[in-house]
């Protein structure tokens, strides 16, 4: 918790040359900002930690590259403390890009009010952009059919663990790629994957072959790199790859070589490989999230969350995430709501 | 010309470790085959030479890998000499996979009768699979809109030079990538490209930037490799890549590393990269070829062909093609039709 009247901010200090470390961030304490006319002052409750943050540090993506000196960018959930906008009242729960800090002043158009009475653990992952990304990649981009084999990499991550569950609900055979036997066991036993592949085992190809005896029809790619190349090699004709992210590239200064065999393997097998960004599909979000909420309430969909307490631990949470030490959505708990909801 | 009663065959002798050479083929003379019941004996008029042949030698593609000892596979045009099938009569022009040889015995279902009175130079390229591939890649896969910038690599090749012309007819700005200034000049002056890029110039990135001031919306990829990576780096959001072939990979035993930046660049720019094989689209072929025939007759579409005389020169023609020494469709003239058409 921040002292009263103080806003703690994690400043993005310098661009990593290699892996992200705590030295790339610096905490600063500044005075509480004030809301101007039409603005909102919000208190951050939960800060999101996601692999995309590494990409934002390194390069222009769907957003301009982060510049040293800026508050570290981060989606999150916040509570309205002061509203100078007619549409909002104190206590409203909103989400938006608040950054790693205790308080933010934002324009109403930059936030979204969330329905009251829903656990923050649901709102931050499954009912936020990471869960929505699982829907978009699977159903807007890859479009698996029942009975097809769907492989998800980064399956233990926020998006991956939703993609695994959605593909299973859609009647597919689901193979989850994650690091370590324990994470694989969790994906099979708790989240319903038909099989797990441990990419750290040293026998990715062999495990993939054993787990996908009928080849691979759809690949939800969160990693890129060697895993992508290995999956392409096992893919069936007319396979589809939804490129959601490439966490294998995020910890490199230069994105490096692409997956072996591209584009020859795409031609021979008529594979469609398609990158997507959730922001292009936001018109579908309300319907998708209503559906997710029903699935969560009925217990058919789980919302795995890993919580790190305290804004001061946000950089370490990102480092842990990039090293694959999370199960489900990684979130930093910054504060508790003051207002009853 | 073959001696009477003799069938010359180019045998695929051994798998290349590096570039294709004449030593990978061996000519054999065998007796004229005879047509069994229901079969056709055909005399090859034109043998096609195409980059795909290199791929067939190296690996399983949409067809099983060629085995040493087999007649070198090749599409071509042939004249029916003897028909033991009701639907065909001597003198019919047919196309099919006859291989590099003077005569072949084939099943009627494996050939297609071509309309009489059309120049062989049209039938072998624009009105065959290479021309059809230009249609499929552009209009079934990439789907450019008028005003968009379309880049075609391997633009001097059989498929590329049709893709350039079709994209231009569709109202796009067309940039042709080919090797050498002379080929580029030909593509601009004779085939209507708006600009040409010489990938051998040593300044691919700079030339591409100059030729595509508004970025690239659609890429018709015949090469893969560094050209693909350079185009992806200049591509606009929502760009589409039709992966038709990867000639840069054909002269390698191992397909090697993929294009730099994949899949990260696909995600950031929402790029769709899609391999295709013409055989999946054959239901559209009659309509497409009728349209092409009208365009050819009206002079709006040209059918560039490079003819090599004599079956004995087929291996060298393939070597020349793989080194980029062709303009348009490379064909080997094996014999002239005996029957009036």
Automatic annotation (TrEMBL), chains A, B:
This is Zinc-binding dehydrogenase. Signal peptide: none annotated. The keyword Oxidoreductase applies. Residues 21-332 form the Enoyl reductase (ER) domain. Transmembrane segments: none annotated. Keywords: Oxidoreductase. SMART domains: PKS_ER. The lineage of its organism: Bacteria, Pseudomonadati, Pseudomonadota, Betaproteobacteria, Rhodocyclales. It comes from Aromatoleum toluvorans. The keyword Oxidoreductase applies. InterPro entries: ADH-like_C, ADH_N_2, ER, GroES-like_sf, MDR_fam, NAD(P)-bd_dom_sf.
């Amino acid at each position: 918790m921040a002292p009263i009247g103080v806003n703690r901010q994690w400043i993005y200090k310098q661009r990593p040359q290699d892996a992200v470390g705590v030295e790339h961030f610096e905490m600063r304490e500044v005075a509480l900002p004030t809301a101007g006319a039409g603005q909102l002052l919000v208190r951050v409750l939960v800060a999101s930690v996601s692999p995309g943050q590494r990409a934002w540090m390194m390069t222009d993506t769907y957003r301009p590259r982060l510049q040293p000196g800026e508050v570290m960018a981060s989606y999150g959930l916040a509570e309205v403390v002061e509203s100078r906008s007619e549409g909002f009242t104190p206590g409203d729960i909103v989400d938006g890009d608040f950054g790693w800090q205790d308080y933010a002043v934002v324009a109403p158009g930059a936030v979204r009010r969330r329905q009251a009475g829903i656990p923050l653990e649901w709102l931050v992952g499954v009912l936020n952009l990471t869960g929505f990304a699982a829907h978009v990649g699977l159903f807007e981009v890859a479009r698996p059919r029942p009975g097809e084999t769907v492989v998800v990499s980064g399956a233990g991550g926020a998006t991956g663990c939703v993609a695994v569950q959605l593909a299973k609900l859609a009647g597919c055979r689901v193979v989850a790629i994650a690091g370590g036997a324990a994470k694989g066991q969790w994906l099979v036993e708790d989240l319903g994957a038909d099989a797990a592949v441990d990419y750290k085992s040293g026998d990715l190809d062999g495990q993939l072959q054993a787990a996908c005896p009928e080849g691979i029809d759809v690949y939800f790619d969160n990693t890129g790199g060697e895993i992508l190349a290995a999956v392409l090699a096992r893919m069936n004709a007319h396979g589809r790859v939804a490129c959601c992210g490439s966490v294998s590239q995020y910890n490199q200064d230069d994105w490096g070589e692409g997956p072996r065999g591209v584009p020859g393997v795409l031609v021979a097998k008529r594979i469609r490989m398609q990158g997507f960004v959730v922001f292009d599909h936001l018109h579908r979000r309300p319907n998708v999230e209503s559906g997710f909420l029903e699935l969560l309430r009925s217990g058919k969909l789980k919302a795995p969350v890993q919580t790190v307490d305290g804004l001061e631990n946000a950089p370490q949470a990102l480092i842990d995430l990039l090293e694959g030490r999370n199960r489900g959505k990684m979130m930093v708990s910054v504060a508790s709501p003051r207002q009853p909801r």
